[in-house]
Write a structure and sequence with these properties.
This protein is α/β, with parallel strands linked by helices. Helix content is 26%, strand content 22%. The radius of gyration is 17 Å and the shape is globular. The relative contact order is 0.20.
Length: 265
């Protein structure tokens, strides 16, 4: 397939429309159909692809998303960078609803998800030690600060299976580990992006305090998640548009393009 885009964006809860002047394309993959068609547009000098990970009508639950198909489709149309904004909960008081976290680590607490493209016969072990692209992380942090958006420069996201939220006991455990963010889609999405030699970036928009940080605040509800997310969509779009305009054409300060090569036995 011809190169249709350079930068991919996965959309999540409450974030279904990103580009206005768009072309819609259907991409078939060896792993089945992606969550939806891909919407193509332009930001600055960059051709951008947007794919709603839950489908445009939010019909696909987190544990049922075909992550491999979604990521493969982004690679197939030519993307070299993939940005994953997502609604997320906070596990720490200082990470408040409305804040952004540019995560640098993840903890996989999911079960049964297809989480790799490498199933033989060549033995391949991509390292997740530094999953997220340092070049994109630095640019996202700088852009958020320039725009006056409250941003946390680091954070660990623990990814639960969903669709249920955490119990108070689970939430307390995650908080006690010192992790900052909880979400249902950050794994295996970013890791699969890395496996395909693309640059992954997580932007977590904090919408709630998970299970109420064990009694300190009200527990999370889907209604409140969407309410806070919608109130901050303008900031998210501003961050994404400004950041994407300033992404350099060439990847100079990361090794994401060498992931597969450096992982084979």
């Amino acid at each position: 397939m011809e190169k249709l885009a350079e930068i991919g964006v996965f959309g999540g809860s409450g974030f279904y429309k990103f580009l206005d002047d768009i072309e819609e394309v259907k991409v078939e993959t060896p792993y089945g159909m992606p969550s939806d068609n891909i919407f193509l547009g332009k930001i600055g000098e960059h051709k951008v692809a947007f794919l709603p990970r839950h489908g445009r009508n939010h019909t696909i639950l987190p544990h049922l998303i075909n992550y491999r198909a979604n990521v493969w489709a982004m690679k197939e149309i030519g993307c070299t960078r993939v940005i994953s904004p997502c609604a997320a909960g906070s596990l720490q008081k200082h990470v408040e609803p409305g804040h952004f976290v540019i995560c640098d680590q993840f903890v996989d607490w999911t079960d049964g998800r297809k989480s790799t493209f490498f199933e033989g016969p060549i033995v391949t072990h991509p390292s997740p030690a530094e999953t997220y692209c340092p070049e994109l992380r630095s640019l996202a942090i700088k852009t958020a600060k320039d725009l006056g958006i409250t941003v946390h420069e680091q954070g660990t996201v623990v990814v639960i299976n969903g669709p249920r939220f955490s119990t108070k006991a689970e939430s307390k455990f995650f908080t006690n580990q010192g992790w900052e963010v909880i979400n249902m889609t950050a794994f295996p999405e970013a890791y699969l992006v890395k496996e395909m030699d693309m640059c992954p970036l997580n932007i977590s928009l904090i919408t709630d305090y998970d299970a109420g940080l064990v009694g300190d605040v009200p527990p999370v509800s889907h209604h409140e998640v969407i309410k806070v997310f919608n109130n901050n969509v303008a900031n998210l779009k501003k961050l994404l548009f400004t950041m994407i305009e300033n992404i350099p054409a060439q990847r100079l300060n990361c090794h994401c393009a060498e992931t597969k090569k450096s992982s084979q036995m």
